[in-house]
Every structure is written in C-alpha cells, then in structure tokens.
Amino acid sequence: MPPDAGALAHFRALESLYAAAPINRMFESRLEVVEAGVARIHFRLTEDHYHAAGAVHGTSYFKMLDDAAFYAANSLVTDRFLLTTAFNLLLTRPLKAGPVVAEGRWISGKRRVYVADARLIDAEGEEVARGTGTFMRSQIALSGLPGYRSA
C-alpha cells in the first residue's frame, strides 16, 4: 500500500531535517526515506575521512550506519525526535574515497524503544559494514526543530 500524503510529508520533512543538521556539512550526503521503516543515505567519501593508514576512519562508518538506522526508525514516529541509546558495529572491509550507500531498516518496536539495523554498500555493491541500534523517543518535538519541514 503506498504511503498517504501525511506519511510522505513526514518523510520529506525528515529529509529536510537531515540536510539542515550542521554535522552534515562535513559529509557530501543525501537522505531518502524510501517508505515507513526504510531509509537510504547516499554518501561521497573523500580522503578527508581517512585515518593515518589511508582508509576511511571508523567514525565515518558509525555516522553513516547510525544515521540510516535512525531515520528508518524515526520514519515511524511523527511527533518526537528519537535518540540513539546503543549502537553495535561490524566493520568487514576497508573503504576508500568514493560513493557509498547506507541502507537502514526498522526491525522492531513501535512504542518507546525502536530497533533498526543498517548496512554500508560500496561502489562495487559489496557490503563493507553493518550495525544495529536502539533508539528511544525523546521529549523533543520534531515540529520544533529547525529544518523539520515539508519540501
């Protein structure tokens, strides 16, 4: 069943919120909330994201995986901002500069705590990392956040 107009407006507003976050000035990236419980973020990594041994630093892996899982979960919540309470990572391959996609998917929870996972796919279509997070409803109203608006 296709999402209704209210759900689509929420998805676009989450995309706008993501684009407005100051941290995202450090990453060339674009969020798309595909459907309720599914988010995809397209990143372009550069050598600015490298550690001393010439590959992407783990902090970038965390940011990409956490964001994708977070937005997958928050796509199901229309009134409150979620907060990450825990996140587990599995890094399986090094990343170099170039495009990467973070795919997030809601797993469970629809009241106070949500569980979502994400995976990173490199330019060759290979999975290079995955993570699972728990996210909790906060007291922060989405409607009061700068950037949360329909396009």
What is the CA-atom radius of gyration, in angstroms? Answer: 15 Å
Q: How widely separated are the two ends? A: 23 Å
Number of helices: 2
CATH-derived topology: Thiol Ester Dehydrase, Chain A
How is the main sheet built? Answer: 6 strands, antiparallel
What's the CATH H-level superfamily name?
Answer: Hotdog Thioesterase
Q: Strands across the major sheet, in which order?
A: 1-2-4-5-6-3
The number of domains is 1
Low-pLDDT parts are none
**β content, as a range?**
35-45%
**Which shape, going by the Cα principal axes?**
globular
Q: Whole-number average pLDDT?
A: 95
- Which class in CATH terms? Alpha Beta
The number of distinct β-strands equals 6
Characterization of this structure:
- Keywords: Hydrolase.
- This is PaaI family thioesterase.
- The protein has 151 residues and is of the alpha+beta class.
- The protein has one domain (5-144): Roll (Thiol Ester Dehydrase, Chain A), CATH 3.10.129.10.
- It is built from two helices and six strands; from the N terminus they run αββαββββ.
- The chain has helices spanning 5-20, 58-74, and strands spanning 28-35, 38-45, 80-91, 98-108, 113-122, 127-141.
- A six-stranded antiparallel beta sheet has the order 1-2-4-5-6-3.
- Strand 5 (113-122) and strand 6 form a beta hairpin.
- The longest helix is centred in the middle third of the chain and has 17 residues, at 58-74.
- The protein is globular and about 45 Å long.
- The chain starts with a helix and ends in a 10-residue tail after the last strand.
- 31% of the residues are buried.
- The mean pLDDT is 95.
